[in-house]
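Bug: token stream looks shifted between consecutive jobs. Job 1:
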Amino acid sequence: MSPVAEKDRAVAQLLLGAGTCPRCVLRFCSVGSQLLYRHPQQDLLKELQEFLRNSQEKEGTVCLEVADPPCKRLRLEHQEEGAAELNHNGATPQLPSAGNAGNTGNSALDSSAGRVCNVCLGILQELCEPDFVKKVCQKVNSADYQFTSFVFSVSLPPQLSVRERAAWLGLKQQMRNLGLPLAKDDIVQLKEAYKWIIHPQLAEELGVPADGKSLFEVSVVFAHPETDEECHFLATACPDCFKPAKNKQSVFTRMAVIKALERIKEEDFLKHFPCPPGSPKNLCDALEIQCNNGAVFVAGRYNKYSRNLPQTPWIIDGERKLESSVEELISEHLMAEFKADSFNFSSSGREDVDVRTLGTGRPFAMELVNPRRIHFSAQEMKRLQQAINDSSDKIQVRDLQLVTRSAIGRMKEGEEEKTKTYSALIWTDKAIQREDIAFLDDIKELRLEQKTPLRVLHRRPLAVRCRLIHSMSSEYIDQHHFRLHLRTQAGTYIKEFVHGDFGRTKPNIGSLLNRTADILELDVESVDVDWPPSLAD
């Protein structure tokens, strides 16, 4: 079977003669056979050369021949002295005659082994061969990740797009000069061809299949310092395409270069860049070989028994106010067991540092970023929960379980429509009797207007929020103290409902009782969110 179609014979000859590797020749000839790309590059070069010789013999006509690549030293000297004459503006180099056909094959093969492709800069040469694949897999295995499949991604230098355009324009002009047609078939994308070659090798070496939906990613970032400046002329021709962006070290991103190449006129490109491009001295470098596992999500409910423990680290102006937090007491164990890089903590609401959370606890979720370990049995999760509970008397965790990212949304769904129940110990300046507070038990669906409390105004926007007190029940203690049990709409500021916050919450317990009231203790007794699912003990 011929590696390329007969109609692409001249294209293959011209590309090989210009220093293009066999796999890039296949790409330019729109060859879609993945198996063909996986042939060893030297075997593929032999196949192409044999095809070209056979085609000539079959037709019995004089046609283009594959030029023998010169040795590296001569080639570099030749480029320095006369590259512009040979390459700029599509000038066609002198090609050998058919009479030299018998001497072409072996010498071309021998010298091509050390020649870096003028289009892919070696990506489809040594950088997809078994030795490089083993290097990637060694990096993966040393990182000690758990995974059952992988997705592979590759980042290519942006100048490859420039070189591909230059090769195409050079080919186009050479074919025109020779009076031959050039079909407008799509070029196989370099990334696609690279993955065709490397996927089966990685799968075999790692022992797991490649899967586009896998959460475990193996990525390789290639760079080619020798040709980094080849994109720079585009910034002059298309300045609007290259604008500084946050988190970008260079304006010459792949997308910016592609956008500029779509805009620049063909004649302007030919003026600034050799077509076809010359071969570089060096291969691309594998700048980074990285692994990343998709986030794992853990959910549960926590009880907080301390009145001196914030939910999250309490740091003001860079100074830590308290030594620990609910978040840290839980995350310490999860981070260690999952071997994650970092975490993100979220919960269904939050309590103040001096407020306890009792009952069945408050729902929480933790996203563990780039975990090395991802597989935990129900029994292992139970042991992890016990380890958290044994480590501190300030908190307890229940229903600890692995969940999906989408399931976490249920914790936040309709958050303000959910209800919460509280128990507040209240003090009054004037003496009270049982009958003075009994009427509170009869109040239902009391509508409040709460301006953003003064104590949180530094971190929340000023607004008036309408909230509901669904029901209350009072418990008389003595002449200046009583306990109030409340069932409220989520998001209600309970402390402000008691003392009024200088009139910013109306009505309030003080105004209802017609005396000054303040809150001494507050407990969250329940958060009525039916998530995560409760687990059997």
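Job 2, same session, no restart:
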Amino acid sequence: KPCRHCESRSASVPADTTTIHYEKFWLYRHCSSVQQRHQQAQKAGQLFSGLLAMNVVFLGSAFISSMIFNRVAITLADVWILLSILKVLSLFWIIYYLMGTSRQPHAVLYRDSHAGPIWVRGSVLLFGSCSILLNVFQIGYSTILVHCKSKVEILFPIIGILFICTQTYFLWHHPKDCIQVQHNFTRCGLMVTTATNLLVWLLAVTNDTLHMEIESQLREVEQRFAGKAPSSYPHWCNETALCTCPNTTICKIFQEGYILLYPFNTEYSLVCCSVLYVMWKNVGRRISHHHNLETRPKFKLQGVVFGPVLGTSAVIIGACVFMMYQIQATSLDPSRQVLVIYYSYYIVLLPLMTVGAVVGTIIHALEKKELDTVQNPTRSLDVVLLMGAALGQICMSYFSIVALMASNPRDLLNSLALAYSVLMILQNITQNVFVIDGLHRRHVTPAKEEDTKEEQNREADSQRRVSVLELGQEIRKASLSYIHTYSNLSWKRRILREISFFLVLSNIILWIIPTFGSHPLFENGMERSFYGYSTWFVIVNFGLPLAVFYRMHSVGGLLEVYVTA
């Protein structure tokens, strides 16, 4: 009698063909072989579920675009109602999957070991927690201003909390599933959930655009119309002033918390889309016995010295520059000098990262490792996300280059901004080449080195004592073991690990700076005056979230390169 959850079957044991539910589709019912009918049905299921997601995304995009260009006919509340319906549908499907589909006999015969690594699931958990807090602050803020806010503004974040909690639990426990039952229904559910997250991201980017536009324009209005009557202000300023936060501590906390946590909501939606896409590709997938037996290397902080030192220095200096910039940017009269310091930091860091990526690519070319040509949806998605997300920063940089070259490139600040844009393009391209090449290298673990490490670990465990007198000896043994491991690494592997670790820390600080509100592209008025206010805000607010996501996703790819070096 088969088990209910199929947990008794080991992932390393190939599944019995009698327990496999082959896919069927009425268009291909006359195929000669079962295997051919299964493959054609799988392609047809992916096609129809993809078309379903495309229609949902187009419908939601039409609503959001109509809200931007015609706020009278389509309001923000209408968009929230549509997204609430999609969230409820996705919520019901996730519950059905958890309670029904995944518990059927032989539902999960295979699990993709490459899907849902710990850093991805940790990102889902972290950003999901921040998104829940964001919705809590939004509920509190709307409750205080209930006299001028609609009930939808309170109901929408409540549905959002339920959706985020359920989806986070689902993606934490089931990202590796290769479901073998109810193929088409599962694909449609995954695609609807993916489309919902994509629309949530699109709405968040659009709302952030309008929020930052109003905030920046209000600052210009205060400077330009100082001393004039309120009637001289634009009409949207009067509309914004009708529903303002009262002068209370709790309202200020809700307001500041909402602004602080807002970027995490966009990152959460993008990460969930990537995980759901991998699950969609794994529906009906059967993994070979050899693929399941592959052991993934674990992250160990050994064999690196200069990478952590340089990376930590970049993080500390970047944090100082970030705090200086934030203090000056929030003042009424921001200093021009802080922008010079900001761009100078990038001009020093980006060439180091570019040189490191180029050296790492050359070392990959000198290595004799074979390329891993096994089909891997997770790796394919990583490559697509790296290439696609990099387009956001590259697009903004090229627009900046054209504006700066056509204006006044000899000015100090403009020259620094021009160098920043050029170096950013080079760094993105070289890092992508290095990471993608490293992801396709096959991992080979030297057996002799592994045995030596296991013997050292066993000796350390057997000799470990709680005595204070032996504490110094234990520290000395650990230091000698670290030096021994570092000296035994080949020079190619050592340099690769140093470069990878340095790039990991550098990408972390380059992710933190724009995520928490440091946006000099909004403060520097050259591009804005060249392209026009609305055009430049559209360019930046669609490119900046992709640039932030690129940094976060690069960290995961670089960690993969580090552990396989």
